Amino acid sequence: MKIIKGTSVSKGIAFGYIHVRDFTKNISVVEKQAAEDTEYEINRFFKASADTLNLLQTLYEKTLHRAGEENAQIFSFQQMMLQDNDYINSITEMIREKNVCAEYAVRVVSIEFSSLFLSMEDEMSRAKSMDVIDISEHIIRFLTLKKAVFKIPDKTNKIIVSESYVPSYIIAMRLASANAVIAINGMRKSHAACLARNLEIPSVFNVKELDSSMNGKFAAVNGFTGEIIIEPDNDTVDSLKKLQSRYSRMKKTVKKNFRKRLLVKPVKKIKLIAVDLDGTIISHAENISQRSIDVINKAAASGITVAVCTGRMMDEIPDAVKNIKGIMYFITSNGSSIVDSEGTVIYRNPLEPETAEKVLDILNSYQCMIDLYIDGKGYIQASDMQKLDYYNVTDGFDKVLKNSRTLKNNIRKYYNDTNPSLEKINLFFASKRERKEAICRISHLVPPPRIAYAMDYNLEITANTCCKGQGVQYLSNMIKADMSEVMAIGDSNNDISMLKSAGISVAMGNASKTVKAHALHVTDCCEDDGAAKAIEKYALKIKNNTA
Length: 547
What we know:
It is globular, with a radius of gyration of 27 Å. By secondary structure, the chain is of the alpha/beta class. It has four domains: about 1-20 and about 155-260, Phosphohistidine domain (Glucose Oxidase, domain 1); about 25-145, Orthogonal Bundle (Enzyme I, Chain A, domain 2); about 270-350 and about 465-540, Rossmann fold, CATH 3.40.50.1000; about 355-460, Hypothetical Protein, Haloacid Dehalogenase-like Hydrolase, Chain: A, domain 2. It is built from 19 helices and 22 strands. The longest helix has about 30 residues, at about 235-265. α9 (about 290-300) links the parallel β9 and β10 (about 305-310). It has an eight-stranded mixed beta sheet with strand order 1-8-7-3-4-5-6-2. An eight-stranded mixed beta sheet has the order 13-12-11-10-9-20-21-22, with helices on both faces. Strands 16-15-14-17-19-18 form a six-stranded mixed beta sheet. About 45% of the residues are buried.
């Protein structure tokens, strides 16, 4: 039996067989090559950045489902690093000035930025060095292999040992159920270490005495003391199992008590209900049930302010919804405009003109349909209206467009000639690849606009400070209601901001896992009057419904 000491990073006890991973095999080999066309190389870099941004979003969502918002934010932070202008400009300038390929520029710049972080005094800043390496490696993989690759060995009963760890690899370890992770080097405050702790993977860093000669040996990891016991004897195994059992019981007790405290927490009376439209109170066929109408009117009669909060503009909200007496306000275009039941505009937050022009310039490179929201009305190029299938306009939204849009011969010329104030730029793309690339390029603008979506090929561009959550916040302030007294109901990505800010948040049964993860409650589907049931249960306190 041999005991090796390191730095405890994540508590817990684990047993398994040591697998020493060759970290260098996961670092892409990059050679310095001259660029035949520097603009082509820059375009390759932007495409790989878009793919990386999409991958980081996927990692965010996977982490959100398994480990909660706090851990998932690590990948949001990496997305911000990927969009940092200094990082982007350093790479593009190197390609142009040094006439080198994109892969080489990314590798050199990543080393420079990583070294810069490592030279800083505080550990939190130094820990960011591995995030730079992580995102840069993703970009290089997309440049060379056209896809992300995680070389993860079979980890059945394995304790994985590596030179160091990056956040994405910790997630891969968690998904593959590695028993424990050990790093030869590493910082306790790094994002990789934080993930290991919060995902409850027993982890020890700064273990200098482990090498490939110990491959395959049975070992125990004591995450409490930072010890790795090679070939432990029976007494040691029994002692560690008892320690782990006590720790598990303690965690269960803490979680149980925490749930009890949540259950007895007083809930204030609801003063404002913000309810989404499509997929929430109206189906794809644009039908709204009589039960939904009755419940909304009942809520209004009880003194609750009811507002529709939708990505649609005012002109495309069905009359059946506009005519509901209980609805006092319409938060439209993802929060860029608020209109009262009399049609009076009480709030506007338009897209900045300079940003709008830059977005439209970027869109010239792609096959997409541009839909401009101006003063509650929509404008589309006439030729695009004939190609709705090509632009993947689905779920009944094609009928909405045909019934509510004003057609223009040339949408960009119309914008240039009139310089209108835009509530939103609504987009539908011919391909998901181009949509991903456009997201990356648009998100690099300064200031970056707000980007949301409600459908697979759709993008919704609004002002930087604009979202449904911000619109609901403005309305709650206006009626003198605290956000803890707000109830929000929705089903799509663009509903997340209001679900996160509301005191009572409800996701529809037809919502995605990501949306449901941001809500306190989940109700039935739209077709089964889920929104009406939620209002009855949480706002009107009517018992015996199925929400």
